[in-house]
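User: I'm writing a short report section on ligand binding and want a predicted complex to refer to. Could you take this sequence and 3,4-dihydroxyphenylalanine and write out the structure as C-alpha cells? A short remark afterwards would be nice.
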Amino acid sequence: MLTKIEQLLAEVENLTATNAEELEALRIKYLSKKGAINALMADFRNVPAEQKKEVGMKLNELKNRAQERISALKEAFECMDNDAAELDLTRTAYPVNLGTRHPLTIVRNEIINIFNRLGFTIADGPEVEDDWHVFSSMNFPEDHPARDMQDTFFIESHPDIILRTHTSSVQSRIMEANQPPIRVICPGRVYRNEAISYRAHCFFHQVEGLYIDKNVSFTDLKQVLLQFAQEMFGPDTKIRLRPSYFPFTEPSAEMDISCDICGGKGCNFCKHTGWVEILGCGMVDPAVLESNGIDSKVYTGYAFGMGVERITNLKYKVKDLRMFSENDTRFLEEFESAN
Ligand code: DAH
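Assistant: Sure. The C-alpha cells for the complex follow:
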C-alpha cells in the first residue's frame, strides 16, 4: 500500500492540464468518490494495525497534495483567462471618468475673475503664520477675544506660530513688501478651533481684498462691492452696508445683499429680513498702515473679506458645510463649470 501511495504522490506532483476539461478529468481521477485516493482510503481498514499510523499519515499527505495541486492548476487557468481578456484589443474601452471641479473652486475662480476684471491681482501668504501678521500688525489689542485659545490653533512648542484665522494676514505681508498703489485679492484657506457642525468647520476659505493708493475713499469701496455683488448674484442684486467693528478697519461695515431666494420679500433663508450678510469691509485703519510701513498721511485704502463657503451656500443652497470636505462624489458631481 505504501508503494502505491508513493507512486500516486509522484504522479500528483507532476500533474498538468492544458484546459478546464482536462483538469476536471484529473479531479475525478484522483479526488472524486470513485477516485484513486478514495479507493486507497477504503483499503485502509486492511492495513495491519502496526502500519496504520505511518500509512494513515502518508495517505493524508497524498490527499492534501492532490487537492493543493489541482487548486493551483485551477487558479493558473483563471489568471490566464484574465490576461487573455486584457489582451483583447477589440474590446470596447473602459469609460474614462472625467472629474468635476469642487464647488468651492468654482466659486473662488468666479470671485477671482470678477476682481481680475476690476484690476486686482492675486496675492498669496502662508497658512502657518506668526502672531504678528495675523493679529498684532492688524491692530488686534493684546487681549482681543479673537486671540483666545478657542478660536486659534497654536503650535504647542511655539505659541507665537499659529494657523491663520483669516486671510487678512496677507494684507500685512503685502503692505510690508510693497508700497502703494496696491490692489490685490488674496484667496486662501483659514483655520479656527471650532466644533464641527453643519454651519461651522475648523477650516474654511476666504477671499481678502485690499486697495491702497492716494485718495481712496469709502465710495470707491462701495462701488467695487456693488459691482462684485451684481456680477456674482445677478444685475438686480442690491447691497446694503451696516456699521460694524473690525480691529483693522475704521470705519467698518458688514455688507448684505438682497436675498436671491425670495428676491427681497422675506423667506426662511434670510430670516424674513430680505437681506443676507456676505462680507466684512472698511477703510484700512491708519494704525494698520503705519504698523506695516505705509505712510497714513499720504495714503488711504479699503479692505474687505468674504467667506467662499458662505457665497457658495448662497449660490448653490448647500445646507451643510461638512459636505464640502467629505469628498462624496455624488455631491461633487452635481457641480459643473466651464473652467
Ligand atoms: N477678517 C475678517 C474675518 O475673518 C473679515 C474682514 C472684515 C476682512 C473686514 C477685511 C475687512 O479685510 O476689512 O471675519
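A remark for your report: The chain has eleven helices and ten strands. The first strand starts at residue 121 and ends at 122.
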